Amino acid sequence: MKLHATLLAGAGMAMALGLAGSSAFAKDSGFKIMMTPKWTGFPYFEAAAKGGKAAATELGDEFVYAGADHADVSLQVETLQNFLTQKPDAIELAAIDLNAVAPVLKQARKKGVTVTTFDADAAQDARDMFVNQLSYKQAAKTMLDCALLDAPDGGEIAFVAASPTAPNHTAHIKYMKEYVKDDPKYQVFKVVDTQYANDDDAKSYDVAINLMQAHPDLKVIISSSAVSAPSGARAISASGHVGKVFSTGFALPSAIKSYIKDGSEKCFALWDPEELGYLATYATHLKLAGKLDVTPGTKFKAGKAGEYTVGDGGEIVYGKPLMFTKDNIDQFNF
Amino acid sequence: MMRKLPQWELTLIVLTLAAGAWSAYLSPYYLSFDQIAESTRHFVFPGILAIGLAVVVILGEIDISLASTLAFGAVLFSKFSAFGVPIWIATPLAIAACAALGALNGVLVARLALPSLAVTLGTMGAFRGLAFILGSETGYTDFDDSYLYVGSEQAFGSVPISFILFLVVALAVGVLMSRTVFGRRCYAIGLNKEASWAAGIDVARIKIQAYTLAGALAGVAALVWIGQYGSARGDNADGAILFVVTAVVLGGLDINGGRGGIFGVVLALFLLGTMRNGMGLANVAGPTQTIVLGALLIVGVLRPILFRGVARGYRFAFSRPAVASN
Question: The domain containing residue A194 runs over which residues?
Fold first, then answer.
């Protein structure tokens, strides 16, 4: 008898779940939102997933986070295809290659799935909105401000990007070059080189060593890769260039705390990835619930993350840069 | 000779079915013809590379430059598309260019008698460099639709054309290796190079032909790549060679040459594909997936030892009573 009741309850629950999964429209919560990062296991993306999960829980949505353990675009496309098979209401991703993910994302949109990119954008017609951590100009300025703390008198600077096609990295470098050329505040710098390290720790280290050998007067190595910037700091320490060369750019506070504390580095920057993931998921939910019209100028409130405005091309700028120095590094624990 | 270890092929089929059942248990979305057919798409480009690599491995050599050859091919396709070359002219030209890169590997290995691992390690970097130089910094995405057909379209509802292409390639190479003089000679060289040479086989020539074939197949894989991802860049398929080697080893090919067949490689791809598909649909964490596939590769490497053990156990269990009854 008891077994019978359990079976019935189980069947009832399965039916309820099935119903929840199938009635995707005209509802306020219970959406299935699936997120894939560039790769799993990296604290930055894990923090973004934590924020995404928090938003989904707050709003009563189902949240799934999955992906390959290294940044490989063919694996990312496979993950997205697998997501699509699971009939989600929305997909969130940080694109490895903005174009290679486009075909599968377009397929998703054709099936009515909302596509949100965060951290790194996909081709514009392949997604509904892009939650950008910082505007490209803001990011460029923040990194140069850090570089000014490292080398107040300016000097030679070099850039390290993930690849020539990493959309955010290349845009940052473009704007940094413009500021160095046109903005008097940053004209003390001279750009001497740009190298690529594929978000890979060992490669970033080698690239930093090579840059220091190739440019004896190099002052600052700047990277918007949260992998390459700490590797640069390690390379500077290991090769005895402390005080002569500095590494800066975006990095997790946990990865650079020791360098800031021992004084070998002065400044790194980032934003709060957890709140970024929260905002991306919150905005995605609002869109699904029909409460967010993704057109330029629309204002909306994203829970505890504050108020935002939709910009051109469906871009929502999170826009809260954090600069880590020895005065504040202890406040951050991600 | 190809059927020396049919048990392994049988084992692979059983494992694939088991993996399918496991996948169906892991995810309610797995068991659907459309889903499974669609998922084959992700294994076509490494699959075609694996078929090419299998021919080289049967000879007792290795070619780890194939993924770089694919990148070169993809970038070359993008150039042809940019210049408005019709696809039916671009395809043979790009495949021929990739075949030429393969032939270069073959000449270095066979004529100069250099170790194939060292040669193809070098050309792996060189060919990728060539792809980066030939391609622009930003990659190319503006392909003419005719270029994308093979890699993106489906037939019979949900079967990717690229998967059908893979089956055709596998069948053709399978027949080549098991039913032709060329194939026989490849196995002979893989088993005993000196004896083959003494028997009058032009070992160097066969090797160059095998490398050329592998290169040409990388060109075919490039055609699939551009259609599937709509993007040609120097870093295309970077890192794919590990999966390709896994498929070949798991397929039962002896890495020292002379043993195993194309059919085994195809089955290994099915097994790997089924497992990746199932785990992906169940949103299994990335590192866990890597561990599972790594464990599978170790099983593949240990295969001969496992079989010897099983055979010994079999004799131990059954032959003694037979002796006693005599």
Answer: 136-269
